[in-house]
Amino acid sequence: MIFDTHLHTKVSADSEMQITEALTRARELKLGLIVTEHMDFDYPDPSFIFDPQAYFTEYASYRSESLLLGVEIGMQESCYEKSRALAEENQFDYVIGSIHLLEHTGDIYYPAFYGNRLKQEVYSIYFKTMADSVKQYSFIDALGHIDYIARYAPYAEPEIYYHEFAEQIDEVLQALITHDTVIELNTRRLGDRSVIKSLAPIYKRYYDLGGRYVTLGSDAHKMVDIGSHFTAAKELSEWCNLKMVYFKNRRMQYV
């Protein structure tokens, strides 16, 4: 069974989706699910954390072979110890590490973060932060949405092109391989063929450097987005010779 390994329900501050809605959609699509609620310690908005025990208790009756419980950790140097303790002390099936903030207070989501700075400067900081975080957060199972910044950056051309940031992207990919961390193929933007074209060289480079596995994640916050663009994601994975996997009990499972 293919799993959508990245989605958020009402436990996350930016989602109102009910777990029953997610399960209904998953049954329609014949997908397994891993719920990955936001845990962003030291985030300017304290609502982006949750009580792990309350989470497990509330969703215990839904947990099954096809509904697994994970977490998406916002990686920052300042909250490394808290994040590691969270992952080690709780029975998550899967831990995603993601970059949501840069320079401690700058949320990539908001245009104000970018100011008048050029794309080259901001994206270089983004990839350097990501590489450093992957090296530090060696306990995570996968790196989430490497192209997250391209969703929100207010540039005329926000897309990530491997040839423009080859050295910085290689550092990220090599860190993943060194620490046995899988890369996520986030499917949110794959409805646009130009996005697939820009991402393909990155995932192909990951394979060339020695990476072999990829998780598929819609990053859905609404029922309708679960499993979005998975056909395109499977095609891209196959083109890059990457095997689709998911995690259960923090162990890699083959699709």
Automatic annotation (TrEMBL):
GO molecular function: histidinol-phosphatase activity
Reaction(s) catalysed by this chain's protein: L-histidinol phosphate + H2O = L-histidinol + phosphate
Span of domain PHP: 4-187
Enzyme Commission (EC) number: 3.1.3.15
Residue ranges of coiled coil: none
One term under GO cellular component: cytoplasm
Keywords: Amino-acid biosynthesis, Histidine biosynthesis, Hydrolase
Short name of any one Pfam family annotated for the protein: PHP
InterPro entries associated with the record: Histidinol_P_phosphatase_HisJ, PHP_dom, Pol/histidinol_Pase-like
SUPFAM superfamilies the UniProt entry points to: PHP domain-like
Any one Gene Ontology BP term: L-histidine biosynthetic process
Pathway(s) where this gene product acts: Amino-acid biosynthesis; L-histidine biosynthesis; L-histidine from 5-phospho-alpha-D-ribose 1-diphosphate: step 8/9
Similarity comment: family membership: Belongs to the PHP hydrolase family. HisK subfamily.
Xref: NCBIfam families: hisJ_fam (TIGR01856), PRK05588.1 (NF004086)
Entry protein name: Histidinol-phosphatase
Organism: Propionispira arboris
